[in-house]
Amino acid sequence: MTESSDKETLPNILSIGAAVPEGVVTNEELEKTLDTSDEWITSRTGIKRRHVLKEEEKPSSLGVEASREAIDKSPVDPEEIDLVVVATNVSDMPIPGSSPFIVKELGLSRDIPFFDLKAGCSGFLYAVDVAANMIGGKGYAEILVIGLEALSRVVNWDDRSTCVLFGDGAGAAVISKRGNRGRILSTSIYGDPSKANLIKVEGGGTRLPPAKGSEEDERYYIRMEGKGVFKSAVNMMKRSSLHVLEDAGLDLSDVDWIVPHQANIRIIKQLASSLGVGMDRVVVNVDEYANTSTATIPIAFKEGIEEGSIESGDVVLLTAFGAGAAYGATLLEW
Ligand code: UT7
Fold it and tell me: How many other C-beta atoms can be found within 10 angstroms of the C-beta atom of residue 219?
């Protein structure tokens, strides 16, 4: 577990951008190819639709679009960005990842460092934690953090237990000490490797190299123990949420909005109930986008702002869980 508790040095999340593909796959469309129903998917997950990349579309383009929006909305010029962190579980290429392609397409200065960060669906909050500490400790000034995911590319579209759950998307944030908006109050990240096997794509790494794979081999697709994940999810998000609140010297009554990882409406409702927070203070959009992994939080955060729910000065709690099992939370004042 790491935590950022030196409040004097914590930077701001200056802006948020997000992008999803135009293509949409509805529950009704899935009913035509799978033994499933809109009724099952809606009642078990809250999902109605998911945005999915077309075969010819590049996942990193979503990251570029979200980043352009975040940079445009911030007072930071593209050439001032001095580090780019791309949280993603399935990079454009295993080598060299997604970050160099995004940096290149954004036309950022040639010599800045960039890297991919893999921490399940908590990747965006891990990247925020890393950025907050890099600015505090390493001397970077303006960091672009991206959550980018195209799980449709590793989903077995014949497996009803997984394919209905995921969508594609990206979100981005500019993090800096500049400005007076989005002050990070606390961040914390955790992991529980005893749960490392709950969600996985086994093939494509060094244990099962990509070249050995075949379309029929289920180990090359995302698989999970849904019930096991469900059981741990609420505890993980609750623990990290309470930790950042305690670290910031606040309690739940100070929180205006919770933006949780969007995987399943039942998990979100149980989290709210276990924290004693009404659903009227929780941002939910899992119905429209399904689980976009590292991108759910920035996409939902941006929507909450644009809908007029999250207002300037609001205290916002972000919390996520996912493969690994990596989890965490960030508390900020928008
Ligand atoms: O970012 C983290 C990613 N993962 C998650 O957050 C997943 C967390 N887990 C979940 O969201 C839930 O466990 C699921 C939505 C995956 C499943 O819901 P559940 O209430 O735990 O259902 P279940 O696993 O108990 O499955 C119940 C039944 C099974 O049939 P039998 O064995 O009872 O006959 C499944 O085969 O539902 C069946 N089923 C489906 N039926 C219709 C599984 N998927 C489907 C489907 N349509 N798409």
Answer: 15
In short, whether 40's Cβ falls inside 6 Å of ligand 1 is yes
Name the residue among 240, 233, 270, 249 with its Cα closest to residue 333.
249
Nearest residue (by CA) to ligand 1, atom 48, is 160
Q: Is 44 in the pocket of ligand 1 (CB under 6 A)?
A: yes
Residue 138 CB contacts under 8 Å (≥ 6 apart), including other chains: none
117 touches 86 (CB < 8 A):
yes
Q: What is the pLDDT along the chain (334 residues), one digit of tens a residue?
A: 555 544 557 999 999 999 999 999 999 999 999 999 999 999 999 999 999 999 999 999 999 999 999 999 999 999 999 999 999 999 999 999 999 999 999 999 789 999 999 999 999 999 999 999 999 777 899 999 999 999 999 999 999 999 999 999 999 999 999 988 999 999 999 999 999 999 999 999 999 998 888 888 999 999 999 999 998 999 999 999 999 999 999 999 999 999 999 999 999 999 999 999 999 999 999 999 999 999 999 999 999 999 999 999 999 999 999 999 999 999 999 9
Of ligand 1's atoms, which has the minimum distance to the CA of residue 320? 1
Nearest CA residue ID for atom 38, ligand 1: 161
